Amino acid sequence: MSNAIPHDYAIGIDPEDIDFMGHVNNASYLKWVQSAVLDHWRALAPSEAVAQHLWVALKHEITYRKPTFLDDEVIATVLLEKVQGARAFYETVIRRGEEVLAEVKSSWCCIDAGTLRPARLAREVIERFFTPDPEAAG
After folding, report:
1. Which chain regions cross the lipid bilayer (predicted)?
2. Strand order from edge to edge, sheet including 74-84
3. Domains in the chain and their CATH numbers?
4. 107-128: pLDDT as tens digits
5. CA 137 to CA 116: how far, in whole Å?
6. Which of 45, 57, 123, 137 is the most buried (most CB within 10 A)?
């Protein structure tokens, strides 16, 4: 959906993220994406939904564009592309200023916190992640 509400998440780069070549190790991007997507969920979902649901990553596809360094100021912008059943599909773009460092497509499964079984989100919860479509309102 093109009307997804973007969520910016500031990334802190730790010395442990730096590899033998002097830039961020590829594995750190996974940690960042997980933190950014979960922060997006907590920021936009109602508190009851946050308490009742957990998220499990199913797949990450990362395209690395440029190296990231220790002192870089980095922002991850998260968009919820769509929800199908208990699955959610995200796009996360990691930037340093205007430079795209990495693009990540990921899919996640929503889990009921009580039963630990896959769970569908209510439509009113999903709608919080998108701006209203003006054509649908007419």
Report:
1. none
2. 7-11, 74-84, 87-96, 99-112, 53-64
3. 7-131 (3.10.129.10)
4. 999 999 999 999 999 999 999 9
5. 36
6. 45
The residues near 72 (Cβ < 8 Å, ≥ 6 apart) are 13, 96
- In the chain, % helix, strand, coil (3-state, to 5) comes to 25, 40, 30
Give the CA count within 13 Å in the CB-facing half-sphere of 57.
16
Per-residue b/e over 5-24, b at no fewer than 16 CB within 10 Å? eebebebebeeebbeeeebb
**pLDDT tens per residue across span 69-108:** 999 999 999 999 999 999 999 999 999 999 999 999 999 9
Query: Would you state the structure tokens that stand for residue 121, as one six-digit string?
Result: 């989100």
| CA triple 34-17-39, angle to 5 deg | 25
**HSE-up (13 A, CA, CB side) for residue 127:** 6
* Sequence-ordered list of residues with C-beta below 8 angstroms from that of 115, at least 6 positions apart, any chain: none
CA 7 – CA 111 distance, rounded (Å): 22
